[in-house]
């Protein structure tokens, strides 16, 4: 199996140090200002150690994909540093990046949209070799067919088009393409979200087997908490551009400290009627606020059942709560005690109460 | 009388590739205040089945019956249907964006809908009702939001607007096709809470299509499992989850990452759903089924009562007796585990 959580002495394979990414936002906001900034990722620290899988979870728009793109250096960061294998790679030029591109690969969410429908599968998978000018002619074909076999595709289907494959098979094509250059790190951005459960299971098995065989390291992005629990060693929970809690799978699922983590877990539908009937249901009111004009202090305070005055004022640091291991960190002024419930703080028994609208 | 009784519904489309038998004999019924969950892989016929019932399939050959409060929706006259669809039957579609018109204000769209079915309402009354509905589904400051356009609402809010519209006339039946699939879990929880609260208040019956077995565990009373256009299993919620009979249902559950199981390998269902053009004889699941035996390849199993439970139906040739069925499953599991060990032993 994989390396368990590495000790703090090991060097992370991939590391974000206070990474921020801003996008210019149009002047369509209520305030009517022409130039505004959208804080997609806001001073995120994240470490991924060799051989482990770190799960990144959070609601739509919280900045998961943007962070992933910054880490893969597909985006330039606005501030902060990206380190790979003990080296600061934040400002490498295109040319200097080339070897790095081979080491870090990204698998995207949509198995339908991310493959060019007019190109044959063999050449799609062989792209990486073409870009890096490696393996030509028959040698390239042999390598591609090897890859197809590795991910469970029939190598004889080398000349077929993406449309001739099922959803799960197309996602395998994406995986084969990502594996072509023997990367050390794979960033999986919602690799199974668009798939039926049985096909999802095939792809998850494949990713886990490949990790065990090839010693791969994964950053695994998903909004599906049961999937993240299945594949991850450690989990980082994001909210509106920030990491609000980070820890091992057990820390997060059995000992969540942050009210947002707790709410997210309680909203997760469980395919088990007994559990569904008996567990506490916290229904968060409101939607994710705008990243253009995020709430002051703790970003979560407008939706948080535990929020008090101080939460509006200062941003809570991401730190271990008293008694927690150093690698279980939480950004909250009033973290939950172990086993403490959130429901007591929610008015209206889990039915979304009308709340204040946008500022 | 049941509120909804669907009997041997068959829907097919004639295409260049041949006849697509999307729904091949589906029967189920539903009472007031109850929720029926319909699950199954992509293409199993969930949408076609429910869309046909509410009269939204075009260019299809349809046979069978769908009695709604005694009226057969499939043969009723257009003016009789007008009083039912939209008014006594509300509908929510998967994609909230495509179902709200982008160029009209939210309030206008709800008002139009109300007035189309209730011409006695004045403009002002309809507007007040629209605001009331938005409030009911948890939209803050509903009066002010009536003048917004759809793009000014988030995905979750638009989906709640769709629910508000579907519930506007207090329908007896709500048909919801993947109403929360595009939403985050926290927003999904809000939307499901709104639906169940409205059900409690108004006694609405709900048909809920979803691919998420977790959602089914949360809200369904009964579950229909579909594969290749037929009902494979139909049972109360707990039986579906804890004592399923059908190998397809078993396959769906074995595919799920189980809580607390950690990084174990999952057991996917073999292969992919069959094409519903020119289906071979026998059980449509046979080519993917680990239990398939002679009979399965020859004749298609009918949906029949199993486990001595009048509410539990399964379309499968395996024994309908709980002890016998369980023994067969346990034997298969033992064999699979043994095969896995030999394979590992050979590899190392
Ligand atoms: N290229 C871009 N230009 C402007 N804004 C962007 C861009 N990419 C992302 N954003 C914004 O940044 C924020 C974070 O988006 P991102 O795609 O990283 O979220 P996510 O967590 O991956 O969401 P999802 O779960 O929906 O994939 C959002 O508000 C989004 O609208
Ligand atoms: N108008 C049409 N013409 C031809 N075939 C159709 C038509 N509509 C649906 N089908 C086919 O009927 C079958 C059932 O489709 P349906 O949309 O009901 O599946 P579903 O179970 O809702 O799947 P999903 O989970 O992907 O929504 C599919 O094979 C589909 O391709
Ligand atoms: S800091 Fe305050 S508002 Fe933020 S999560 Fe903690 S209690 Fe809630
Ligand atoms: Mg994303
Ligand atoms: Mg459908």
TrEMBL record, chain A:
The keyword Zinc-finger does not apply. Keywords: ATP-binding, Nucleotide-binding, Transport. Coiled coil: none annotated. The keyword Transcription regulation does not apply. InterPro entries: AAA+_ATPase, ABC_transp_ATP-bind, ABC_transporter-like_ATP-bd, ABC_transporter-like_CS, Oligopep_ABC_C, P-loop_NTPase. Residues 14-265 form the ABC transporter domain. PROSITE patterns: ABC_TRANSPORTER_1, ABC_TRANSPORTER_2. GO terms for molecular function: ATP binding. It holds the Pfam family oligo_HPY. Belongs to the ABC transporter superfamily. This is ATP-binding cassette domain-containing protein. The lineage of its organism: Bacteria, Bacillati, Actinomycetota, Actinomycetes, Propionibacteriales.
From TrEMBL, chain B:
Transmembrane segments: none annotated. The keyword ATP-binding applies. The keyword Nuclease does not apply. SUPFAM superfamilies: P-loop containing nucleoside triphosphate hydrolases. It is a peripheral membrane protein. It comes from the Bacteria. It is found in: Cell membrane. Residues 4-253 form the ABC transporter domain. Its main location: membrane. Signal peptide: none annotated. Keywords: ATP-binding, Cell membrane, Membrane, Nucleotide-binding, Transport. GO terms for molecular function: ATP binding. InterPro entries: AAA+_ATPase, ABC_Ni/Peptide_Import, ABC_transporter-like_ATP-bd, ABC_transporter-like_CS, Oligopep_ABC_C, P-loop_NTPase. Belongs to the ABC transporter superfamily. This is ABC transporter ATP-binding protein.
């Amino acid at each position: 199996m994989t390396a368990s959580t590495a000790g703090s002495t090991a060097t992370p394979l991939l590391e974000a140090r206070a990474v921020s990414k801003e996008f210019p936002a149009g002047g369509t906001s209520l305030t009517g200002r022409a130039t505004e900034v959208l804080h997609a990722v806001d001073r995120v620290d994240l470490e991924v150690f060799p051989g482990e899988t770190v799960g990144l979870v959070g609601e739509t728009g919280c900045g998961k994909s943007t962070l992933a793109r910054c880490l893969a250096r597909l985006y330039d960061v606005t501030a902060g540093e990206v380190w790979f294998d003990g080296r600061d790679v934040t400002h490498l030029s295109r040319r200097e990046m080339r070897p790095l591109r081979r080491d870090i690969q990204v698998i995207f969410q949509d198995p339908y949209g991310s493959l060019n429908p007019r190109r044959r599968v063999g050449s799609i998978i062989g792209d990486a070799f073409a870009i890096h000018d490696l393996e030509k002619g028959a040698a390239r074909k042999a390598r591609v067919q090897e890859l197809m076999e590795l991910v469970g595709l029939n190598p004889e289907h080398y000349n077929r088009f993406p449309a001739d494959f099922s959803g799960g098979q197309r996602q395998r094509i994406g995986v084969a393409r990502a594996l072509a250059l023997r990367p050390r790190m794979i960033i999986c951005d919602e690799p199974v979200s668009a798939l039926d459960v049985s096909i999802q299971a095939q792809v998850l098995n494949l990713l886990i087997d490949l990790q065990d065989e090839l010693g791969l390291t994964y950053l695994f992005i998903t909004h599906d908490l049961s999937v993240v629990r299945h594949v991850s060693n450690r989990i980082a929970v994001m909210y509106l551009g920030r990491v609000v809690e980070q820890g091992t799978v057990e820390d997060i699922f059995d000992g969540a400290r942050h009210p947002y983590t707790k709410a997210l877990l309680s909203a997760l539908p469980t395919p088990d009627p007994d559990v569904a009937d008996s567990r506490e249901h916290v229904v968060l009111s409101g939607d994710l606020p705008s990243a253009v004009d995020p709430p002051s202090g703790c970003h979560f305070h407008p939706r948080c059942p535990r929020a008090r005055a101080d939460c509006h004022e200062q941003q809570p640091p991401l730190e271990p709560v008293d008694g927690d291991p150093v690698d279980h960190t939480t950004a909250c002024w009033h973290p939950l005690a172990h086993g403490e419930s959130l429901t007591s703080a929610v008015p209206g028994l889990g039915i979304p109460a009308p709340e204040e609208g946008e500022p | 009388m049941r509120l909804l009784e669907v009997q041997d519904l068959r829907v097919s489309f004639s295409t260049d590739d041949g006849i697509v038998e999307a729904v091949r004999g589906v029967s189920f019924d539903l009472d007031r205040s109850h929720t029926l969950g319909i699950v199954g892989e992509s293409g199993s016929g969930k949408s076609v089945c429910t869309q046909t019932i509410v009269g939204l399939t075009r260019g299809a050959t349809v046979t069978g019956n769908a009695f709604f409060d005694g009226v057969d929706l499939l043969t009723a006259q257009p003016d009789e249907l007008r009083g039912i669809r939209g008014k006594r039957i509300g509908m929510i579609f998967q994609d909230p964006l495509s179902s709200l018109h982008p160029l009209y204000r939210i309030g206008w769209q709800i008002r139009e809908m109300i007035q189309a079915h209730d011409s006695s309402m004045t403009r002002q009354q309809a507007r007040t009702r629209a605001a009331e509905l938005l409030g009911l589904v948890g939209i803050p400051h509903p009066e002010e939001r009536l003048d917004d356009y759809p793009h000014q609402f988030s995905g979750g809010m638009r989906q709640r607007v769709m629910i508000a519209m579907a519930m506007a006339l207090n329908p007896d039946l709500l048909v919801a096709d993947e109403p929360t699939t595009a939403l985050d879990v926290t927003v999904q929880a809000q939307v499901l809470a709104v639906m169940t609260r409205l059900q409690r208040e108004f006694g609405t019956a709900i048909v809920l299509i979803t691919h998420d077995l977790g959602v089914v565990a949360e809200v369904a009373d009964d579950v229909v499992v579909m594969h290749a256009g037929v009902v494979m299993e139909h049972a109360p919620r707990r039986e579906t989850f804890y004592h399923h009979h059908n190998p397809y249902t078993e396959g769906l559950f074995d595919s799920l990452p189980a809580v607390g199981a950690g990084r174990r390998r999952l057991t996917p269902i073999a292969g992919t759903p069959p094409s519903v053009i020119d289906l071979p004889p026998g059980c449509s699941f046979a080519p993917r089924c680990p239990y398939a035996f002679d009979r399965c390849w020859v004749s298609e199993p009918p949906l029949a009562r199993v486990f001595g439970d009048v509410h539990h139906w399964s379309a499968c040739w395996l024994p309908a007796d709980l002890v016998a069925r369980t023994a067969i499953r346990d034997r298969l599991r033992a064999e699979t585990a043994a095969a896995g060990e030999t394979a590992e032993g050979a590899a190392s």
